[in-house]
Amino acid sequence: MPVVISARLMMEDGVPVGVRGVATDVSDINHAHQMIQISEEKYRNLFESSLDGIEVVSFETGKIIEANQAALEIFGYTLDELQEQGYTDLTPESWFLIEAAIFRDQLNVRGYTDEYEKEIIRKDGKLVPISMRRWLIRDESGEPVAMWNILRDITEKKMRERELERVNAELRGYAHTVSHDLKNPIHEVSFSAHTLDMLMDRPDTEENRQYISDVLEIMKKGLDRANRLIDNILALAESGQVPHDVRPVDVSEKIDEVLEERSVEMEVRGIRVLKDSDLGVVMASPTHIYQLFSNLIKNAFEYCDSDSPIIEVRALDKANGEHRYLVRDNGSGIPADLIERIFIPFSRGSSGQTGIGLSIVDRITRVYASDVKAYNDSGACFEFSLRDYE
Fold this sequence. Notes:
There is one protein chain. Helix content is about 45%, strand content about 25%. By secondary structure, it is an alpha+beta fold. It folds into four domains: about 50 residues, no CATH class; about 100 residues, PAS domain (Beta-Lactamase, 2-Layer Sandwich), CATH 3.30.450.20; about 80 residues, Helix Hairpins (Orthogonal Bundle); about 140 residues, Histidine kinase-like ATPase, C-terminal domain (Heat Shock Protein 90). The strands form four sheets. It has a five-stranded antiparallel sheet with strand order 4-3-7-6-5. Strands 9-11-12-14-13 form a five-stranded mixed sheet. It has a two-stranded antiparallel sheet with strand order 1-2. Helix 9 crosses helix 11. The longest helix has about 35 residues.
């Protein structure tokens, strides 16, 4: 049995003659201490093993006084470094007023907030989207002294949302194509068929035969347009598939192949193509490399409105193991109303034209875990990267 003993000397005439002692059973106290230690250990294990970031912020200093490993990984700091950072160091200014309202209307009123999304500034300066929820910590008198914050990195969630938005935009493009671009030639064929049926009941004259010939020509053109649209949709669907025939591809050879096919157009329009002598070798599908540069060069030929068209194909410096390329023309550039959605299938600019060539380029670069971007710089520029396919 655990006890606490207190004792004192018993004195007579200044001489110690004995000891008086008191023994107190402290079993319950020891048990309470053990339970506290167990509880603290459980809390510490939960705190450190949580996949969500957990931090404690002092109201006195406004700084983080404790954080688990998950929180440190999100912020990119060590604990000592994080404890030196203030709110303004870790939060973009655009969130100051938003969070002030959340503190006022939620945290101060009921002691906790709803889960909400915001951004934080990592040590490397990168903005990271997170979800956040906060709880007040009060002292014995009920005064708030700190707050718990639970945060989660939602970068992947945001990427999935953007991908979903992109897919939905593509679906809207398909719907538009089916309802409008494909419907028009079908309507022409249908109308022509009814007209042809009527003409067949008329007398066989030279004039009637000419009418029949004209109607058949309209039907032929409408069917050709419908078939081209269907082929384009199938080509777009196939462009995002995993490549099967992967080999080292000399990029210069594929571009020469594209230019050879367009040599007559280049001569008639006086188009000059300037390309680097060494564009490197990419481990990829030869078909994908051909499609990439074929669509970009075709787009430049079609939309470069310069009196003396010049198309550049350049190899940029490699970055993070990626091959990087630039295709540029010397025209007036990409219209402002189109540049933000230029890679969406069947996007229609102010000119009224639609297409899928740039959508195919976008899909192929994503197959190679890379991307493409469009901007204007002395003409329309398309910059993209490719990783060697493994």
